[in-house]
Amino acid sequence: MKPKPKPSIVVFAKDIRKLAHFYQEVVEMSVAHADKGHIVLDQEGFQLVIHGIPTKIAAQIQITEPPQIRENTPIKPCLPVASIDSARLRAAELGGSVGAKSQEWEARGFRACDGYDPEGNVFQVREGA
To answer: Where is each Glyoxalase-like domain found (predicted)?
Structure first.
């Protein structure tokens, strides 16, 4: 029987190296594969695939600083971290953000807080409560 592939989420990015580095640092993921068009990050049975936007389309996309937050996206990755406080600090250093302590909430055995990456993609970090 063939092994099942790991669950994953694909995030399309203008700058795959910058975005992969962001998630590698903020969510403590390791690089499982990298090539010219995508970088696969791995963490305990889950993969985050940072996939490059084709050059022709990427040239039309402007990333501002801070980035315009893409809040109307119907999917939000929720990623486990050892510490929301640590994730908040690293995200700020790397061009993204994790909401303030006052924006954290608790449910079903975890604490959570939303944030955004350097390209404006919304994500959530979760730690055990």
So the answer is: 9-125
> Could you tell me the two tokens for 58?
């990427």
The strand pairing partners of 52, in sequence order, are: 13
How large a percentage of the chain has pLDDT more than 90? Answer: 80
What residue spans of the chain are helical by DSSP H?
A: 16-26, 55-58, 84-93
Q: Which of 7, 17, 9 is nearest to 52 (CA)?
A: 17
Whether the ω angle into residue 7 lies within 30 degrees of 0, i.e. cis, is: no
pLDDT at position 72 is 87
Which amino acid does the sequence have at 98?
V
Q: What pTM was estimated for this model as a whole?
A: 0.93
Phi, psi of 118 (to 5 degrees): -60, -15
Amino acid at 22: F
Angstrom distances, CA of residue 48 to CA of 56, 65, 102, 115: 24, 24, 28, 16
Q: Mean pLDDT throughout 74-81?
A: 94
Judged against a pLDDT cut of 90, whether residue 73 lies above it is answered with no
